[in-house]
């Protein structure tokens, strides 16, 4: 019974009744499958998304930017990269936050490599992506995704540190002195209200991307030719992962818009690694984020960041295709 509840079996059956009795469609038809996919995924993802955003935001209330900087400052070497990547999980995942985060970390004296461990992990791994992955693919893939996202952040940051690329940060960033902000203590009531407000704020911002992604996924689910997709983007195609990453870089979206598409592609025979590599590329290497970062770092460092992260994502994609 608990499995039926937590695996959303009740919702699947409810939407099935809606499709068959309200829309008068059979589930084994293309239109019926697409409509069921759209309503089922939309409601399921919104429920999971709200729960995960509330939970992680509550945890995040204990780690404001100033405190996050102070925590990372205490670590050195590998442990600093690990801590930066782990803290990246519970930080805002909007690419527009990359510049103030970058400046804040550099101003605090945190090494560039450690800063990039944070910046790489933060957009890839967040509560929203985890919630949608959990609802679409289950605990196994969602957990592996989180672990690989952290590993990518650690490896990327370490390589950038070893390359000693501090000189490719714009000079004005080093000259900025923001000072130490006062860390305000929050009561339990404040934290709960903060989490609730953040749920509303995030859902209002991303619902359109979510529905567009689910809509595209529904079309793929109902009409995309499974045999063709499996042939050219299946796990047996040696360049499918690379193509998925290259297609993902120019796009502007977030994980919420791409995960439903990835789910539909996987259901049609596309390799899990290929679909998830595409999603990672969109979230971590999107062209708009690179344009934003160009304001604080020079082209050579941006290029290095893209190459390191891109290769790491490709490796992870092939690993997913091999393991799953």
TrEMBL record:
Belongs to the UPF0718 family. It is found in: Cell membrane. It comes from Hypnocyclicus thermotrophus. Keywords: Cell membrane, Membrane, Transmembrane, Transmembrane helix. It comes from the Bacteria. GO terms for cellular component: plasma membrane. Its main location: membrane. InterPro entries: DUF318 (IPR005524), UPF0718_permease (IPR053166). It is a multi-pass membrane protein. The chain crosses the membrane at residues 37-59, 80-103, 109-134, 141-163, 206-224, 236-253, 265-287, 299-320. This is Permease.
């Amino acid at each position: 019974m608990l499995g039926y509840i937590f695996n959303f079996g009740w919702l699947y059956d409810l939407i099935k009744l809606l499709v068959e009795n309200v829309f008068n469609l059979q589930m084994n038809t293309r239109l019926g499958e697409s409509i069921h996919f759209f309503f089922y995924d939309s409601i399921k993802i919104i429920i999971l998304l709200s729960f995960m955003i509330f939970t992680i935001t509550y945890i995040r209330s204990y780690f404001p930017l100033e405190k996050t900087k102070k925590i990372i400052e205490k670590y050195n070497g590998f442990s600093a990269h690990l801590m930066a990547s782990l803290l990246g999980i519970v930080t805002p995942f909007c690419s527009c936050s990359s510049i103030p985060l970058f400046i804040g970390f550099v101003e605090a004296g945190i090494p560039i490599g450690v800063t990039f461990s944070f910046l790489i992990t933060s957009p890839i791994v967040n509560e929203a992506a985890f919630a949608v992955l959990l609802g679409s693919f289950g605990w196994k893939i969602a957990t592996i995704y989180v672990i690989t996202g952290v590993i990518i952040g650690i490896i990327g940051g370490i390589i950038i540190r070893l390359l000693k690329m501090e000189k490719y940060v714009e000079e004005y960033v080093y000259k900025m002195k923001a000072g130490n902000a006062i860390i305000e203590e929050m009561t339990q009531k404040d934290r709960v209200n903060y989490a609730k407000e953040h749920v509303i704020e995030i859902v209002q911002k991303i619902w359109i991307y979510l529905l567009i992604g689910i809509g595209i996924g529904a079309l793929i689910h109902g009409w995309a030719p499974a045999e063709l997709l499996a042939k050219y983007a299946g796990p047996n195609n040696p360049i499918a992962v690379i193509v998925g990453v290259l297609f993902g870089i120019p796009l502007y979206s977030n994980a919420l818009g791409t995960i439903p598409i990835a789910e539909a592609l996987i259901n049609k025979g596309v390799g899990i690694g290929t679909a998830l590599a595409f999603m990672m590329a969109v979230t971590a290497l999107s062209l708009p984020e690179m344009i934003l970062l160009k304001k604080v770092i020079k082209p050579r460092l941006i290029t290095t960041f893209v190459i390191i992260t891109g290769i790491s994502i490709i490796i992870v994609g092939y690993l997913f295709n091999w393991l799953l």
